[in-house]
Structure formats: structure tokens, C-alpha cells
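Q: Hi! First time doing this. I have a protein sequence and I read that you can turn it into a structure. Is that right? Here it is:
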Amino acid sequence: MTDQLAYHDSIRLAFQHSRHAGIIVAPDSPRWTILDVNDAYLAVTHRTRAALVGRPLFEQFPESDATRDDGGSRTLAESFVEALRGGPTAMPTRRYDLPVPGQPGTFHEHYWDFCTTALRDSDGTIIALLHEVENVTARVGIEGERRRLTGELEERNEVMQAQALELELTNHQLQKNAVELVAQAEELQATGAQLKERTEEAEEAKRRADTERARAENVLETMGDAYFALDSAFRFTRVNAAMEIGAAVSRDAIMGRTIWEVFPGTVGTEFERHYRAAALGTPAHFTRDYSDGNLELVVDVDAYQADGGGIAVFWRNVTPPIRAEAALRTKEEDLRTLANTLPTLAWTTRPDGYIDWYNDRWYAYTGTTPEEMEGWGWQSVHHPDVLMRVLEQWAHAIATGKSFEMTFPLRAADGTFRRFLTRATPLLDASGAILRWFGVNFDIEQEQAAREAVQTVVEAVTDGFVALDSSLRYTYVNQRAAEMWGWKAETLLGKSPVEIWPELDMENTPLLQLMRRVLTTQRTESLRAFAVSLDRWIELRVYPATNGGIVAFFQDMTDQRREEQAAMILAEASQLLASSTDYSQTLANMARAVVPRLGDWAAVDLVIDATDDGWPPQLERVATVHDDEDKLALAAELTSKYPERWADPNGMAGVIREGRAMYIPDVTDDMLVLGAKDAEHLRLLRALELRSIIVVPITARNRVLGALTLCMTESRRQYVDGDLALAMDLGQRAGVALDTVRLLRDPMDARAGAEAAAERTARLQDVTSALTSALTEEE
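A: Yes, that's right. Below is the predicted 3D structure, encoded as C-alpha cells:
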């Protein structure tokens, strides 16, 4: 048969150089041996001539249900038989998938048009079949896309009609509003008349105010306290009679002069400091004692900022009440010293140790009387086992004049013994001689029980609880706080936050500044902030403690904070994505909106042609966002020197290829070393300070359009699962917005492409007919 095909070189030459893929098959049904194949056919099937020529056709390309015609009754082999009976036979477009070279078991979806023509010898005998195929996969895809776009355009037309109706309703509302504006103009005219009437009322009010001002000036003039006013340059503008008398100056002599000229002794004193502060809006009140042994004079000074600048000053003689208050304060301090000892057992002795006074609490606890306790009667309430040691140490303290301290049991009124910490301190005169001894007994068992009860309550709370002294060193840490920090409580005691976390710059954190403020103001404060020591958001409540330190409760608010931030970010992103049809600028704005709330870095990459299944894809970076320009330059250098490795199953390649997110919550240095191509690559990766990474696909209609990259770096934060879910949501919203913009922008381009494909199909059919005619003429 091959010899028979040495038929005409011109036919063979035309066949080999044809742009249409085809094979020549022997009419040896059912084998249908391949006699010849042209280059176009080899190109579309990814086969070689040696692998096909001389082999049965359906051994190389097995028949399947997909190759049947619309009725489902005719296969390709059957169409060959029909071609042997008559003229050319064609089959409607059918799907036949081809294997991917180098990937066994993997097939690409393809659609084909088939046409088979009998080749005859000069005597009319059929010597072979010319079987031509055309890959119409692109046309099928375009026709499907055209049908989909037509449907979407029809839907949008309905929306536009609805919008037109809405505009008509809006126009009607505007006409209604115009009528209302006319009514409002008439109302404004009426309001103008009312304003005129009120202006007249205001003028009357001003006259009354002037009268009241004159009355007030009369009060200032006749008041007993000294009063004067200074302008913004501290010149006297008003002086009352009491000031003239008290300062022994004439108002005529000082009016218009500065207070520093009239009273040069005030320069550099608290008077100047307070007067200048009052001029800036800070009211001043202070007391000045002029007493010198011969003169008893104490004055209260009040200074206030005056309207229009300057200050108003009042001086008041408070000598009698101040002296009375000082005397009363001395007595109150004595009483307070005694009252502060009442919660304990207290007593005083003569210099020789003879106890001459007990407080009421002593008698209440021991159940004794003053007569029973007088002198050395206290020995009766001591435990006999330790009494001798108490007497020895007490005698030693009296003899040496050194303070006495000892713990021993004392008998209660019910006969039981409780342990007390006893301290006695000598009170000395100016020469150092002992005047008296003052002693107290602290019930340490009762105190210990109370402390244990408080600790039980504190350990039971679910919030972190700590106590710190006046130097901000931990004196107590409950179990919950220790667990949140990942430390043992005893490890923290006696240390300050600055000492525990020296690498975190704790001194400048808002939380430590709040603690110092509470120490100073002794006022309770609370704050919600990011705790760098916990790497979490917390709500901190700090209270002043009676021992001069502070106590603080803190609660983990990270999840609540994250939910609030997520809602804000999604709302802002949705608004930005819907704000413009310039999708590059819109996506860049979205990236800027998430920094630094969802990352220290954000970047957006788009696939230039999302409909192209070729690999690798062409990407366009539309945004890279970071607050540090140097870091942006560093990222650009990294991208330039080390482009994306598209053969890598992970990273950006995996996100674009498979549409799955890349999530690395904790980036370690070992990961950087493993992923670096060379030393320079590792240097750049380390310089970026990568701590946590999320890369999510930007998708729409099951197609990956690009990727959103988020990174935590110098802020030392780490991503959690909730952040990944938020990033995925952002990627989907960005994809829908991008797809919508492209659909609105490109429907006409898609229609033009479909029409061009249809025109190419018609031309192909014309060429096939011409080739068949040429073969017939050669015969």
C-alpha cells in the first residue's frame, strides 16, 4: 500500500506542508494502518512519526464514548467506513484528551473537529483515507465564555433598568425637596425677624451686665481681702483699697507699672512662678508665712487667669486659723500614732522596764485587768516553757538600750495560746537617754490565716494577679499570671519587669508607665494595650496598695481584640475594593489599609493572564507596603536577585498553582538557612527579620487571579489561625472585586474574540475543501 502511495509527489508534498493536522490511513478496516502523518499532526498530538507510521490508528488513539457523534451511534471508525462508501465525512466537535508529555497518567482536556476523505487512484479505486483534525479547544472555551458573558450582560441590563427607575424616583424626590427648600427660605425670613428682636434683647442684657459689673467692682473695692489685677505684661490695671492699705502703696503710684518693678523681691520666688502659671491658665493657690519672731503674718494667695489675658490676685490674712490648725495638727498626730497601734497589743514602760500602760486591745485579748497587769504582772499570760528566755532577753535589752524583738506565745482570755511577734523600742531624749519603752505584739497566727485566705481567693481568680513594691519588684504572682508568662512564680519574685525581660525595652511600654503613674498619683487606672512580655493584648487594672506598692489584675483580650480588628479590616477593605474600577490602585489601597494592623508587610501580586494555563505564570506586583523605606529597598533587592522558583511545590508557586494558602506562624532561623540559595540570600532573608508569614490566593470563580502576602517582622507578633481565616476572607473579597471589574471592562473584547474564532473555523473548512479538490484532480 505504501508503494501505491508513491502516488504523486505533488500530493504528498502538499500533504506534508499543509497547516492542517492530518494522517493518511490505509483502508484496511478494522486495522486502519497509519501510512503517513504530517508535521502539523505531530505538533498537536505531541507524537513522533516513527511512533505512528505503520501502526494501527486506534492502537495509538483508542476509541471512547467521547468520539461518538451527537446521536451517540457513530464512532470515528464507523465514519471511516462511510468515507469508503462515498464522499468526505465530517463529525461534530468532540472531546478527546491527550496525555501530558513526561507526566504518565496525566491528561489535558482537548476538543477536536474531524473530517475524513477517501483518496482514489486514477481508476477510481480508493487507495487511502485522508483524516484531518483541528484542535478547537480554544474555540469551545471561548464559546462557553461568550454564553456566560451574554447571560451576565443580560442580568446587568436588568440591573441598569432598575437603576433607571431608581433615578426617576430620586428625581421626583429632588423636586419635592425643592418645594421644601422654598418653605425653608420663608422660614429663614421669619427667623431673621426673630434675630432682630433677640438682638434688641441682647443689647438690653448687655446694659444689665454693665450694671452688674459695676456692682461687682464695688464689691471688690470694698472687700476686706486685698485684690489687684495685672495685664498680660504683668502691669497693674486695678487695685482695691485693702491692697493699698496692706501693701502700703498708692494705687496711683503703681498703676501701669509691672509687679516686678513695684515688688522686686518677688522676682525668682514662688510668687513669680505661680503668677506666670496662672497667666497660662493654671490657677494657683499657695500660703506664705511672713512670721519672723516679731511679726506673726500668714497669707493665702489665689491667682486666676483673667478674661482677655492677665491675672486676678487675692491676698487673705489667715494667721489666726493657720496657727490654730498647726496646734491642732500636733495633737492629731499624737492621737494618730496611738490609733495606728490599736489593731495590735500595745504597751509602754518606764526606763527600767516597768509596764505602766496597756491599750484596750491587750485587755480584750488577755481577759485581764489593769490591776493584774501593773508592773511585772504580764508574766502571768506567758507560756511557762518560754518565760525564762523572754525575761533574759528583755533584761538584756533594758541593760543595753537596744531594741527588743522576740516571738513567743501569749494566753488568750479563753485559755488558748497564740504566737505573737513582740517588738519594743526605746524613746530617747536629746542626750540619748531612755525616756520610755514603747512595745507592740503582732498576732502572727491571725495575720498568717488572713494572708492564706487572701491568697486562696487570688489564686482562684481566672485573671492574672500580681503585687509589686514601690520599686516595681514583684512581691506576689498568682498561678494564672505565672502560666501566662511561662515562668515559675518564685522565679519572678524580687525582680522587676525590666530585669526579667531586658531585651524588650520594658521601661518605655505603656503598661509599665501606667504602673509608675499609679505609684505617683495613688489613683486606680486601667488600660488596654499590647503586652510585649506576653505577646498578647491585655486589659490591665492597677490599684495603689497600702504598703506603698501596687496590685494589678490583667486579662487576656487578644481574641476579642482580634475579632474587633478583623471586623474593622474587612469593613474597610470592602469599602476600598468597591470604591474604584482601577483595580491596581484599589488593591494597593487595600494593602496599605492592613498595615500595621494585620502585618508589618503587605504585598499584592496579580496573574497577568489568569485564563492562560501555561506554566510558569507571569505575575505583576501591584503593591508592596511597609513603613520603612529601607526595608522596601531590601525587599526589592531580594526579589531582583532571587526570583520566584516556580518548580517549588511550596511558596508562591504552590499558592498560584493549587490555590492553597501558605501559613508559617513561626519562622525560625533554621528555616531560613534551609531555604537560602547562598550566603547572600541568607543575609537578605535575615535582614528582613521575618517572624510569621501568610500568603493567600486571590480567587474568583475557582480561578486563581493572584496572591496576597502578609508578614510579621520587627513588631515580633505571630499569626494565629484566626489571622489566616481573615487573610483568606480578604483574598476572596479582593478576587470577587477584581473579577467584577474585569467583567465590566472586557465583555466587548470577549465577544470580539469569539467572533474571530468563528471566522477562523470557517476559513479552515474552506481550506479542507480546497485540499480535497486538489487531491481529486491529481488522481
